[in-house]
Amino acid sequence: MVRNIFSQASRWTVIYKSCLIDGLKHRCFCARSSQEPGSIGQEQKINGRDINESLLKKKILDSALQFVNQYGWNKTSISAGAEILGYPGIIHGMYAKGGIELVQHFYMTSNNNLIDFLKARSAVISTESNNEFSRSLIRDAIQERLKMIIPFIDRWPEALALMSQPQNVPTALANLLTMVDDICYYAGDRSVNMSWYSRRVGLAGLYKVTELYMLQDTSEDFARTWNFLNRRMEEAEHLEGYFLQTENASQFAKQFASATFTTARNILGLRWNR
């Protein structure tokens, strides 16, 4: 099974490299073409228009979040967000995929906010041992990230339903994988063996099961959810050694994980800029 997974991951890597080469060829052609008179100014106008449109879409999605609890994760919220900024409601036509674009915007914005939290948290001088610091940072990071959902907790099942639709799964999975990878990185995980893979997959599962538990939690300040998180983390620590078995499995996992997380960041258009 591991060999099949690794084979699939290798095919992803080959496909990505092929796309990268094609992209480089295309950029070289564009670079040659841009030497023609007047083409530089035209290209700058096109790039500027793309940037302005991207910023406008982000601005409207930021505004639309305040209407999610009222209307849901859909174009109605996007229209309301546009109108309060002075744009016509029909501008929601810019969002061809509909409400999932609002969900993905919130998810990526929250992930970026989590990185700021991780940077600040990891910079604090601690008297804890490395293992204790790593464990506490992971727990705090998961809790911090889940807290970002709380303002939309009543509408979050709707967001999960949108992310679970087949056409939206790749981006939803990529968002989750990059989030747990960032948490592990700032928690000090620089391993190059099976644990690199097992910790990230385990953390992704831990996050999702705690997220689902939180949706049903009616305790004050979600106290039961945080207790649930602590118990699951203790169980995960006992199970981690199960994955660290053979040198071959470690090598397969290392290459598979590298391909998987690289693919995830490529889907989101992210760079490794740590």
TrEMBL record:
One MF term in the entry's GO annotations: lipid binding
The keyword tRNA processing appears for this protein: no
An example Gene Ontology CC term for this record: mitochondrial inner membrane
Pfam families the record matches: COQ9, COQ9_N
Annotated keywords: Lipid-binding, Mitochondrion, Transit peptide, Ubiquinone, Ubiquinone biosynthesis
Compartments in which it is found: Mitochondrion
Any Gene Ontology biological process: ubiquinone biosynthetic process
Ranges where the Ubiquinone biosynthesis protein COQ9 HTH domain occurs: 56-83
PANTHER family referenced in this protein's UniProt entry, alphabetically: UBIQUINONE BIOSYNTHESIS PROTEIN COQ9, MITOCHONDRIAL
Record family assignment: Belongs to the COQ9 family.
NCBIfam families: diverge_rpsU
Protein name (record): Ubiquinone biosynthesis protein
Organism of origin: Rhodnius prolixus (Triatomid bug)
